[in-house]
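If you are new to this repository, start here. Below is one unmodified record pulled from the training split, so you can see the exact layout before writing a loader.
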Amino acid sequence: MSNILILCTGNSCRSQMAEGILKSMGSSLNVFSAGTKPAPEVHPYAIEVMAEIGLDISRNKPKLVDEFIGMDFDYVITVCDNAKETCPLFTGQVKHRLHIGFPDPADAKGSHDEVMAEFRKVRDMIKKEFETFYKSLVV
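And here is the target side for that same chain:
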């Protein structure tokens, strides 16, 4: 069982989508996500675009990274540049630290359709990168 923590700033979009996608790939993964400054809730558009691919993250809640400081992780993966810079020192064992960065879809402006298109684009980028990551784990 691999313990994996995915870090972002708000833990409302990218890290939540990455957690949902990675969890769907295999039961041998124990996946968590957290933020350095968690938002009050998971972004509704993130929930919507994940539902489009059959993944339900509607019950997820943003969590502060401090909840996980003492745990041991095989991988701590940052998905935004700010989290990479402010990633705390873990007292638990961290075997590998990775950075797989994505643009923040919450910064998208425009109509509902335009913003949803950005969320879909980032979701698809996350899916592609984490499929590659997962394949590297099981090979």
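Two things worth knowing about this chain: The mean pLDDT is 90. The CA atoms of residues 108 and 132 lie 26 Å apart.
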